[in-house]
Amino acid sequence: MTLKVGVIGTGMIGQDHIRRLTQVLSGVQVTGVTDIDLERAASAAPAGADVFDTPQALIRSDKVDAVVICSWGPAHEEQLLDCIQVGKPVFCEKPLVTSTEAALRVMEAEVAFGRRLVQVGFMRRFDADYRRLKAVIDGGTLGLPLMYKSVHRNASVPAGLYTSDMPLNDTLVHDADISRWLLGDEIAGVEVRLPRKSRQGGELRDPHIVLLHMASGVIVDVEISVNIAYGYDIRGEASCERGIAALPNRPATVITDARGIRQAIPEDWRERFIEAYDQEFREWIVAAGQGTATGPSTWDGYAATLVADAALRAVASGQLEEIAMRDKPALYAAPVQQAA
Amino acid sequence: MTLKVGVIGTGMIGQDHIRRLTQVLSGVQVTGVTDIDLERAASAAPAGADVFDTPQALIRSDKVDAVVICSWGPAHEEQLLDCIQVGKPVFCEKPLVTSTEAALRVMEAEVAFGRRLVQVGFMRRFDADYRRLKAVIDGGTLGLPLMYKSVHRNASVPAGLYTSDMPLNDTLVHDADISRWLLGDEIAGVEVRLPRKSRQGGELRDPHIVLLHMASGVIVDVEISVNIAYGYDIRGEASCERGIAALPNRPATVITDARGIRQAIPEDWRERFIEAYDQEFREWIVAAGQGTATGPSTWDGYAATLVADAALRAVASGQLEEIAMRDKPALYAAPVQQAA
Amino acid sequence: MTLKVGVIGTGMIGQDHIRRLTQVLSGVQVTGVTDIDLERAASAAPAGADVFDTPQALIRSDKVDAVVICSWGPAHEEQLLDCIQVGKPVFCEKPLVTSTEAALRVMEAEVAFGRRLVQVGFMRRFDADYRRLKAVIDGGTLGLPLMYKSVHRNASVPAGLYTSDMPLNDTLVHDADISRWLLGDEIAGVEVRLPRKSRQGGELRDPHIVLLHMASGVIVDVEISVNIAYGYDIRGEASCERGIAALPNRPATVITDARGIRQAIPEDWRERFIEAYDQEFREWIVAAGQGTATGPSTWDGYAATLVADAALRAVASGQLEEIAMRDKPALYAAPVQQAA
Amino acid sequence: MTLKVGVIGTGMIGQDHIRRLTQVLSGVQVTGVTDIDLERAASAAPAGADVFDTPQALIRSDKVDAVVICSWGPAHEEQLLDCIQVGKPVFCEKPLVTSTEAALRVMEAEVAFGRRLVQVGFMRRFDADYRRLKAVIDGGTLGLPLMYKSVHRNASVPAGLYTSDMPLNDTLVHDADISRWLLGDEIAGVEVRLPRKSRQGGELRDPHIVLLHMASGVIVDVEISVNIAYGYDIRGEASCERGIAALPNRPATVITDARGIRQAIPEDWRERFIEAYDQEFREWIVAAGQGTATGPSTWDGYAATLVADAALRAVASGQLEEIAMRDKPALYAAPVQQAA
Do A112 and A135 lie in a common domain? Predict the structure, then answer.
């Protein structure tokens, strides 16, 4: 049986997901698209897909079994609530919503509905390297994890468009989510430290050191560098009681020449996580076909809004900013969603 | 448009390809299966697939656009000729056929038909690491390749079932094919040297050193070890005029514990090449949908029979055994099939 | 010309230095030894060396051109002042002294003498890997350093004898000194964070995360784990504006077996830094032969007492503890001593 | 007690050994030098050393306990025989002598003398990486060695001066000696294969593949590339019954920048083996002080002349050239000299 999917938002990421759903993955068909720019929607629509005038019409159409939201962040809340109202599974790109209050409203609606419908686009959880790392940590042969070091380096960000709150609002959320998932733990507090500023980004505040204090006492030590010039470099290392487990280098050809023994670094997140995006949707299609969702949940989207808010407060205060989460609804009972 | 595929042979590899065609890949449907054991065929048939009494019936059925051959090697020639007769694209697992004469007959039929229909299952050409290695060699910044070292290590082979001709007949053909493809070159002669015998395999002749003398003068230096106990380890390194290019390690978690800093090795070829198999069929589906074949050709299957024969002669003679290929039909004009 | 050296303190480290000075290095002769246990001194004395009753007698003897202090920390101040009084070069094992006030008194005496006489035993500065790392940072092709990550892992410490202040008092000083030297910078403040406690060390506080705020704004992020079971693992990585420079793995045989691809880790600091100790004394002998000292200075020993004190305060306060250094005497004018 | 050493030959390598013996090593003094160019000898002579008119005078002088021969190869035989005649230990740079007959004459003289006096300059045996590799092989946990791969790459050789016999006469002998030592085995036959010629060296024959057939059946597979442009790269890997042991990369700083993750390669043999040369003389001084020699012996120098001769014959014949060694005198009883 083929899952009929409607896509809201046909910008860069929306187009990429349409390509993925039509050319890469099986068991799925894009039957509807919409966008605030209907012309763009029409040109992005694959053969056999209807162009809908509004998200509401797309969500309610009989031609659509499940929804993929790639619209502007502030539009997410209403679209998510509409999907929940009609009981359709929905994949929502980051951010889930743009405020903690909105996250709580979506959560309330989903809990009232009584079944998980929402998956948030934290693709790292679907990356084979991270899954192997989690398996080693969970395996327990190294003892309990005590620290986790997350390195998040980006070659460059667009001058002017990328502002000083974005390393914490947009970038940190990935490290925060993957840390919660790897460790099966929640974030209890956040500190931010600002090292000597890089001159690569003009006035932009960069890099950041962020300490995430987990509920268990584990400290996650994050480096965020967004203009490091050399490439997109994601590293992760767990210090456990009796050893260390770390992400490997990506498998580039080993070249030995006048520059030494060397391996290339990915240029950007598309190159680094292309297979994780495919896998993310592969698993979503299976769950959505059963009328539900697995993977990162509304609870995880809610946690992301809390950590971003606390990190911004921590820059201003220079202090540890604590995070108080509401009680966890039974719907999201697993401590943090486990790998398949 | 969905490609309707019939699968001949539903043993282990046939079942794995059925899983791949039904659960992993898009644009394709398994509509027919057959096997010498019809009961096994019935139990392997996915929903909606017919079980055919004979390969001939399957090949000729309107329900089948293209054929996947996973039967016993000696049955391949007849099945390939049948496919060519009715003009249907066909994917054939290794070996293409079991003699040089049979390879020439299939080639003659395909050339007479006038369009490529046959793809042979040399999956390494679809592996991302090999493709990146080829891109570096072809890029030319290191100068011309002068030597290529191919290491082919297998954890273990079944005692008794795996005989002393198989390292050359079944295993070497992968190294030979990937060398021809990486270097864009043909094999002109073969030498085999037998180092001290491993006691891991009882009477089995193991390991082997094979030198492939390419037409260009490049020497390919192959190590084949089939009982090396520790895992499945495939390495490749090209020595060029101004530098070296090598396959990377596979990306396993880096663990530091009382055993040192270490990374796991794949257990077998399924683990190592799982993505290459998927990609192999992804590209086959596209070409078969257009009524033709790309990837490794009948010419490549013919080359494989020649190198295996020459290697077996070289063990007996201790000398360089030369390979004389027939003139290359225009149908296979590209020196050796290039990466996409 | 051979340098005649007197060694004060013939415990484990003193004996090792006597071995080094007599069996490994050239241009040097051990002519005198002393110890609080004169019998131990006698048995440690190499052929031709006198056993002195007191440090004072050894320091003043005509048979002694230069002094090596390996006695108990609280005895260092008086012995250093004696050496300065008679104008003899002196190598002093860590700690230089046990209080900031004592460090200032030694500094005052050396400044009054007018020539450097004291070298402190920070051996990492003589390690070839650290020297290459410094050369890359100083070379400037990666831009300015912004962060430095220092990892200090020890397989185990003696239960009971090693107390919770020692990771900061004894261990951190190495990371602090090497950071000052690598970055050519002073430490302006210290923060300490305590992750989830390891159960490997019973009640011992372990591990620690320490943030050293350098005068330039660079933040040094230190992990100290003293019971990590797997070995002695020292890592260092500088994040610069346009790239990263890191210490390499130590060169152990690469073994591929059923445990994967792996390299051994050193067992302890003796194995890791054996060549650095030799080089440290090689350079000391040259300078002492010229009646002076190079390498880590009294100023560096003073800085070490300040950072250890501040770190202990930071554990108690949970806050950033600032460090105020006195004006730097011209005698120690180089920002931080450069590599040879 | 200080060993008084006379150095014959004060060209580049002789000057380097004088530096080593006077500035780096202890327990040794250079008391005499000579050279065919006495002016060069005088300028190379360290303080306190006499300049001798002839090698004979130096060898016989009471001021000289032991001799270092760094003269031209054809002069070695006579100088070695003179040393043996007066019973003085002698370190002889490669080649021991320039013909198998000469090697046999030196061996006969040493055997008649009744004690080892000669050490040949195969410095690789003193390299820490090779010693660790040998320890792993000898440890036996990987089973017996079956193949050994030796890679010998040189950035460039002087055009015109370096002729086509030199990769086999001068370069191969290192791989041959280290293979004999690592494996505790003798070479029974040699084959040479010539891959596509590099254009880096004009008319020079380069690279070479050499197969050394050891008495045990192990095959040593050697790549010699002398103009590979990128640096001096020495690799070694033993394939054993249950795993692989390989030399590590040299410990260069790991730099991540726009060229990827990379480590520098040594420029030449001086950089790669500087510590091995020091260690080689450290051990020689100890043995010479006891009136004898350890390390590579006259027997090893004899083996080297045999393998070079056989390799040159093998280029001409294209066949396996066998090596027949004389019976091994009891003086050289250890199969091949073991590491200390």
Answer: no
